[in-house]
């Protein structure tokens, strides 16, 4: 059980690092807007975003935690396969959302929320030449993060 608890802690820190990297990419991508913000806003931004990252990570960890409870007496190989598949799906979904958020913010001036969905009434926006690079970057992000996950598992 100690090794599975260690796994959950490592997975939690992996998700926190994933969110931090996404935030840094977003801030670097929109650096021109970042330098216009007052410096006094930065500590509040970091604290509130960290709290959201912790909440997101805990929500994502619910499934592996339940799997640990279910597979405690069963094969760890099956558990590892299920968790790897789950992580791949989560990383792919979060990467797609992050890249879409980058592009939507640069075009519309606000981040993804329910109000952005009203503009997505057609799929032709996705197939425009400018957006093809977004699909390529998403693929690269997913592959990079999956390799990072494998290295992270080797350490933990």
Question: What is the structure about, briefly put?
Answer:
This protein is an all-alpha fold and 156 residues long.
Structure explained in plain terms:
The protein has helices spanning 2-29, 31-34, 41-70, 76-108, 129-155. By secondary structure, the protein is mainly α. It has one domain (2-155). The model has no long low-confidence stretch (mean pLDDT 76).
Compressed to H and E, one letter per element, the order equals: HHHHH
Helical content class: over 70%
Determine the number of helices (DSSP H or I, runs of at least 4 residues).
5
Q: Provide the low-confidence segments as ranges.
A: none
Task: Output mean pLDDT.
Answer: 76
Q: What is the count of structural domains?
A: 1
From the alpha-carbon coordinates, what is the Rg to the nearest angstrom?
Answer: 18 Å
Strand content: under 5%
Please tally the β strands and state the result: 0
Shape assignment:
elongated
* Main sheet summary: none
Instruction: Report the end-to-end length measured between terminal Cα atoms.
Output: 14 Å
Structural class from helices and strands?
mainly alpha
């Amino acid at each position: 059980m100690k090794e599975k608890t260690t796994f959950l802690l490592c997975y939690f820190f992996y998700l926190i690092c994933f969110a931090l990297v996404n935030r840094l990419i977003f801030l670097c991508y929109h650096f021109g807007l970042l330098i216009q913000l007052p410096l006094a806003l930065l500590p509040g931004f970091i604290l509130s975003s960290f709290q959201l990252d912790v909440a997101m990570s805990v929500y994502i960890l619910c499934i592996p935690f339940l799997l640990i409870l279910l597979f405690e007496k069963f094969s760890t190989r099956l558990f590892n396969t299920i968790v790897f598949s789950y992580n791949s799906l989560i990383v792919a979904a979060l990467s797609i959302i992050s890249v879409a958020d980058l592009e939507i913010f640069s075009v519309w001036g606000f981040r993804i929320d329910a109000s952005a969905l009203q503009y997505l009434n057609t799929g032709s926006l996705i197939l425009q030449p400018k957006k093809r690079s977004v699909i390529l970057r998403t693929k690269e992000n997913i592959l990079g993060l999956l390799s990072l996950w494998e290295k992270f598992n080797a350490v933990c």
